[in-house]
Amino acid sequence: MEFLQPATWAEALEAKAAHPDAVPIAGGTDVMVGINFGHLRPALLLDLTRVDDLREWTTGAGAVRLGAGVSYARVITELGDRLPGLAMAARTIGSPQIRNRGTVGGNLATASPAGDAHPALLAADAVVEVASVRGSRRIPVTDFYTGVKRTAMDADELIAAVHVTPPSGPQQYSKIGTRNAMVIAVAAFGLALHPDRRTVGAAIGSAAPTPRRAPAAEEFLAGELDALWESRAELPTEVARRFGELVAAASSPIDDVRGTAAYRRHALSVMARRALTWAWTDYRNDAKGA
Amino acid sequence: MSTPTRTPTGAPAHLTGPGSGGVGDSAQRPDGVLKVRGEFAYGSDLWMEDMLWGVTLRSPHPYARVVAIDTSAAAQLPGVHAVLTSEDVPGEKVYGLELADQPVLAVDVVRYQGEPVALVAADHPDTARRAAALIRVDYEVWEPVTDARTALGHPTTDALHESDAEVTELSRESAHLHPEGNLVRHLKVRTGDPQPTAEVVVVGEYEVGMQDQAFLGPESGLAVPADDGGVELYVATQWLHVDQRQICSALALPPEQVRLTLAGVGGAFGGREDLSMHVHACLLALRTGRPVKMSYNREESFFGHVHRHPATMRYEHGATRDGQLVYVKAAIWFDGGAYASSTPAVVGNGGTMGIGPYVVPNVHVDCYGAYTNNPPCGAMRGFGSVQTAFAYESQMDALAAELGMDPVELRCRNAMEQGSATPTGQVIDSPAPVAELLRRLEAMPLPAEADGEVDLRHMPGGVSNTTHGEGVRRGVGYAVAYKNVAFSEGYDDHSTARVRLEVVGGEPTATVHTAAAEVGQGLVTVEQQIARTELGVEQVTVHPKDTTVGSAGSTSASRQTYVTGGAVKAACEAVRGQLLARAERLVGRPVPDLRLAGGQVVSDAEEIAVPLADLLGGEAVEETVQWRHRPTEAIDPETGQGFAHVQYAFSAHRAVVDVDTELGLVKVVEMACTQDVGKAVNPQAVVGQIHGGTAQGLGLAVMEEILIRDGKVVNPSFTDYLIPTILDMPPMRVEVLEYADPHAPYGLRGVGEAPNISSGPAVLAAIRAATGLPLARVPVRPEHLTGTS
N or C: which end of chain B has fewer CB within 10 A? Predict the structure, then answer.
């Protein structure tokens, strides 16, 4: 196994262009597990941990530009106020050790349907910035996941950053695991209310071949909230229930060792209903505080 | 999480107390600092400069005929030093703990997925793995037998009492996985009226999934060829001498030429009783003339050791309207998997103690162990009693509900006590405080209800943020259990200790040498404590565990503090006898109150104080003692009657759980445990055993299961085989009772297993109480609680 360790982003892109098969490694919380289990045997590892730029986040033009190498632990401690949905997702990941190592960029690159960051990024309309020696481009995260562990990236591209706009309204994130910590998602749900745009972002994880949005649920809820954004009136129970049903309907889960398809659908409907209830309560309380 | 133990209530008064480092003190582990710092050398850390790496090629099929094996491509790979198959096994080609039925390497047939087929030694582990992948094995794949009752030809749906007794014949008619049929053992217990009737009857069928020991240190060892044609094996194991016996048999070498030393053991829980890489590494070392290291990775480890037997159990309880048990009928099927391992003894425990610590006049138990093509099952903490406790305690709750009686009251009304007869006709001749354990639990305050402040760490689902209190209901459940300590049914159970006392650097120093495996439980500490108490010295060295001293028996069955502790005590007494005699010779007359204390021989009456340094000079006093507990006896094959077990350990749990009834997620809020340990030799270690046993029982109740589909393991990783985290295992209340067993050294009882048995059933009862669901299977999954299976 060859090992490349570029010191700069330009070198990293050149290395990836020269070796499109190289497997990038940052925190190693996916790659090293794959190697240790013998599931992954890359001819070439491309270590990105020396590229300091990747570990920075900046704000500008309304969005946070989150470097691909920023750890989950830093998302929680440094960005909990700006990116609450993503921070809540980060909080559900692994153990403190894993959160210290693992990165949002790595989660995107692996593109597992069970990746914890995805529903939060989808709900928040994040944009992935990828780059190669040919230049950089931006891919809306909605278009990023193309199949099980497949992405819209080309072989010579690396993830530079993800752009996430701080929310104008409450966000929530919930995940089911069969123990109370350090567990892969059986099903996950991300929610973002966008009162500025009068829209809603709702997305699911671990319940379809890719992380995906729940468009019918988003449209339904946006429609129902149209009359409520101003008044901040109480949300009818029936709306939350129906929203939950539509979120579950957006899934196409399977039976596997972690859970049944029937449970995943059921759990999504409950999580979505509860998350919406919490988010709307926050929205109403924000008004009282303001 | 730590809570104080109770003051002794009847322990011998002459023992040394806190701070002494002796018996009864929470003395520090000799290996504690190294382990906390990560500096302790485990089996997987073994290393020699010129060593080779051994790997195992395993069968991908649960059941197949091996048509041909072609090793030529593997052997030609540069860096490969040996490729071995069953033809290279010089001695007996099968081995086993109780029955020799398991091939060292597959002979003609593979009977489980992961069965070892061939071995490779190479100069790099990757080379060895690549070579193993080059070995061509042609299999004729057969359909696996994956259900114990099917394997035995038993009906799976008939009512309890219609289960046929003619099992041996039936098993011979079904597909034979082994020449003698698929029945490993059928144990019968028969007492009282064979056709009993009762006013109130409850019937239930229960199922326990396959639990794994989930020890963190994988199977590892290093075999070093010796000049005399023999081999030295450094290995993480539970019983050096039973390994030695089996290795000698496979290698066709005498015991003098197969010398074992215990390597650092990273947990065992029964999973290291059977051989894993032992013979394989020795074969490769003897073939290559080089040291060979083998160390399984996590996935291979799941295939490299036996698991806890899954069980299906049908119970019928009959009682009077006022809650007196009249009869219990039970049929218990243990799935032993492809090879016997400890199945006969597991069946023995499951059957003889299968109705719990209750007095029942009429008992009819059939307990079966079967061969299937599932992974081999054998020893795991609790050993046959964990499974039955889920059934009999569920039945006690069901009966209490039927009678409209408090479940604790029903249990106390039927509880065993000293003088009670067990279903096997054994009169319990030491304290059996079953009712007191329950009443003390009941008297403990319950944890506070949630107070409105949402802390996700205390919610079902934890920080995954699935509930802020919605759907959450609390439940409380109780369970009590008992477990035999040490080996039973007439087994010649003994241990050997060699104790040496000499002056080292001016300081009297004892050396304790036993072959008893330290697997993390703290026996090395106990050995030191006993020597300090018996010899009155501070410095005690624990000699490395090896086969240059006689067998200590297995580190299992909660037996080492009792049996090896007894041997160390006896050897110390022999050394002390020599020292006192020597002192009397020095004084020139008998001194009745002569004793050892503070590194001196002292007499209070005659104001004598002779330092051991003066008494011994440059000499050493050494004694080797083989020690036995009082004998047990084989039980009657038709009735199960007999003095089967030397001692029982009793524990009880109260579980308090919060269940998110809508999402089916469980948060265990508190576990409380009461246990009688006779004498807490090391109170802190005792509480540690109770915490650990409780966690492992909780794990089986709510998450731990090896999932098998068509004979294949589908979750061989810690990603999908889940064990409890600190957010799953709550703080505990522990009360340790010390009612001395007059037959045991210091009055002690084995500690390790009992809390593993009563904890899971208490959790299950609490989940039932929270949800109102019947729940007849563990582990309980979210699907079971939400109707989405």
Answer: N
Element (H, E) at B439: helix B434-443
Regions of chain B short of the pLDDT cut 70: 1-18, 157-175
CB atoms within 10 A of CB B120: 30
Q: What number does CATH give the domain B494-628?
A: 3.30.365.10
- Residue B18 is predicted with a pLDDT of 61
Q: Which residue of A has its CA nearest to B466?
A: A174
In this prediction, residue A60 carries a pLDDT of 84
- How many other C-beta atoms can be found within 10 angstroms of the C-beta atom of residue A288? 7
* Structural fold of domain B43-144+222-297: Aldehyde Oxidoreductase; domain 3 (3.90.1170)
Q: Do B726 and A184 touch (CB under 8 A)?
A: no
Q: Is A241 on the interface with B (CB under 8 A)?
A: no
Q: Does domain A171-289 have CATH number 3.30.390.50?
A: yes
Q: Is beta strand B231-235 parallel, antiparallel or unpaired with respect to B258-262?
A: parallel
pLDDT in tens, A239-263: 999 999 999 999 999 999 999 999 9
Minimum-distance CB partner of A274 among B457, B464, B467: B467
Determine, for residues B461 and A176 on separate chains, whether the beta-carbon distance falls below 8 Å: yes
Contact B720 A182 (CB under 8 A): no
CA-derived radius of gyration, chain A: 19
Domain map of chain A by residue range?
A: 1-46, 171-289
- pLDDT at position B508 is 96
A79 Cα to chain B: minimum distance (Å): 18
Q: Is A190 an interface residue toward B (CB < 8 Å)?
A: no
Domains B43-144+222-297 and B494-628 belong to one CATH topology: no
Is there a contact between B93 and B86 (Cβ–Cβ < 8 Å)? yes
**With contact defined as beta carbons under 8 Å apart, do B234 and B225 qualify?**
no
Q: Is B781 on the interface with A (CB under 8 A)?
A: yes
Select the residue of A175, A257, A260 nearest B714 (Cβ to Cβ): A257
Domain B434-484+647-786 has what CATH class?
A: alpha beta
Predicted confidence (pLDDT) per residue in B481-535, tens digit: 999 999 999 999 999 999 999 999 999 999 999 999 999 999 999 999 999 999 9
CA distance B20 to B22: 5
* pLDDT above 90 coverage of chain A, percent: 95
Alpha-carbon distance of B287 to B176, in angstroms, equals: 35
Convert the pLDDT of each residue in A72-108 to its tens digit.
Answer: 999 999 999 999 999 999 999 999 999 999 999 999 9
**Any chain A CB within 8 A of the CB of B130?**
no
- CB-nearest partner of B465 from A173, A183, A266: A173
Bridge partners (DSSP) of residue B539 are: B509
User: Of B130, B167, B128, nearest to B150 (Cα)?
Assistant: B167
B783 contacts A274? CB cut-off 8 A? no
Say yes or no for a CB contact (<8 Å) between A270 and B662: yes
Q: A196: which 2 tokens?
A: 């500025």
- The structural domains of chain B, with segments of one domain joined by +, span 43-144+222-297, 434-484+647-786, 494-628
Report chain B residues whose CB lies below 8 A from the CB of A258. Answer: 720
Task: For residue A288, name the pLDDT band (cuts at 50, 70, 90).
Answer: low
Size of interface A-B (CB pairs under 8 A): 106
Tokens 């053992």, residue located: B185
Mutation site, A41, A98, A179, A265, interface B, largest B CB count within 10 A: A179
Residue of A36, A175, A178, A180 to mutate, interface with B, max B Cβ within 10 Å: A180
Least Cα distance to B688 among B723, B732, B646 occurs for B732
Bridge-based pairing state of the strands B377-378 and B307-308 = parallel
A210 touches chain B (CB under 8 A): no
Q: How many residues in chain A?
A: 290
